[in-house]
Amino acid sequence: MRHDPNLTLSIPQSALLRLFAGGNHGGHLELESRDPRLPELALTVALNALSHVAEELRAIATSGSKEVPSELLGHLWSVGEQLDSAATIALALDKAARHGDRAEAGVPAEDNGGPDAVGGSNTTRAIQAAILDIEGVQRCRVFENDTDETNQDGLPPHSFEVLVFDASSPVPDVTIAQAILDEKAAGIRTFGSVTADAIDENGEARPVSFSRPTEREVWIETELAVVDGFESDEAAAAHIVARARELYGLGDSVRRRQLDSVAFELAGVDDVTAFTLGFAPAPVGTTSLAIGPREIATFDTSRTTVTHTP
Questions:
Q1: Are residues 305 and 243 in contact, defined by beta-carbon separation less than 8 angstroms?
Q2: What secondary structure letter does DSSP report for 10?
Q3: Residue 298 and residue 277 in contact, taking contact as beta carbons nearer than 8 Å
Q4: 176 and 152 both lie in a single domain
Q5: Span 29-84, pLDDT tens digits
Q6: CA–CA separation, 286 vs 276, rounded Å?
Q7: What gap in Å lies between CA 211 and CA 72, rounded to an integer?
Q8: I need a surface site. Which of 15, 36, 53, 110 has the fewest CB within 10 A?
Q9: For the chain, what is the largest distance between any 2 Cα atoms, rounded to a whole number of angstroms?
Q10: Burial, 59: exposed, middle or buried (Cβ in 10 Å; 0-12, 13-18, 19+)?
Q11: Does residue 197 contact residue 208 with C-beta atoms inside 8 Å?
Q12: Are residues 126 and 200 in the same domain?
């Protein structure tokens, strides 16, 4: 869906102010389209990639205006299209107005929840931002249970679980634990399969728990019909793997139809004549692969085979 330069969006003042309330932890602006042609507008924005327009947004937030100029909206749209999907923030303003700080970030695209979507308080979002700032961390998701009962995700009452994916460059457990302790609210328990000591403000060691996802290795075999301009099977495999890593984050099921279509992004690809995938070598599956909330699909060129016919 392309941005309409004539589109005007009405933005409640409270949501604009909330955008900057959390410092530089990636505030969440939420918008609702009043245009019947766009009943649900998902606009991707990451504030750390928009520092050059932050002042203009702040001016709108504090001036009393309730509209974003179409030129600025168009700029946000164009920048958003270029952002890594892991930084995607879905914008739906009425939801923020109704739920305040508990509005969810990462509204699903194609029912996937978006890579590493997380819902919860400002604290959980701050924890996620702090973990993603650690060199080597690729993905992070935070589960929260603020009820008095163990919830459906298996979290004990008044606890949260930080799920961290750092497979290609493992981060020391103590580094992750310290980042969690530095951001977590008092009185809320950490939960997870990994526990390490972090140092609190009094210099005392405190155990902090978190989890790493179960990695589900995916095998892919595809056959392409190509014309002039096609580079090579190896380049096609590398492209499929790179795009798969962008598309599928923590808890994201692998959508077969979505993944087999990325080959059409390559020059010289005329058709995808066969595409199979699975969790074992020589895959025969032709349907999507289900991934659990504490799992992640992983992809590699060593498990991706591309062949072509002229």
A1: no
A2: B
A3: no
A4: yes
A5: 333 333 333 323 333 333 334 445 555 655 655 555 545 555 555 555 444 443 33
A6: 5
A7: 40
A8: 36
A9: 69
A10: exposed
A11: yes
A12: yes
Q: Are 180 and 198 in contact (CB under 8 A)?
A: yes
What sign has the CA pseudo-torsion 143, 149, 152, 154?
positive
Sign of the C-alpha dihedral, residues 296, 300, 302, 303? Answer: positive
CB 3 within 8 Å of CB 37: no
Residue 148 in any domain: the answer is yes
pTM, rounded to two decimals: 0.61
The range of the structural domain enclosing residue 299 comes to: 215-309
Amino acid at 6: N
Beta strands in the chain (DSSP E): 139-145, 159-165, 189-191, 194-199, 205-210, 214-217, 219-226, 269-278, 295-298, 304-309
Q: Does residue 126 lie in a domain region? A: yes
- 265 and 201 together in one domain: no
Q: Are 74 and 81 within 8 A, CB to CB?
A: no
- Give the rounded distance of the alpha carbon of 296 from its chain centre: 12
pLDDT in tens, 145-174: 989 999 988 899 999 999 999 987 899 999
Are 116 and 88 in contact by the 8 Å Cβ rule? The answer is no
Do 301 and 228 share a structural domain?
A: yes
* Contact in structure between 149 and 157 (CB atoms under 8 Å): yes
User: How far is Cα 256 from Cα 197, in angstroms, rounded to an integer?
Assistant: 41
User: Do 219 and 304 sit in the same domain of this protein?
Assistant: yes
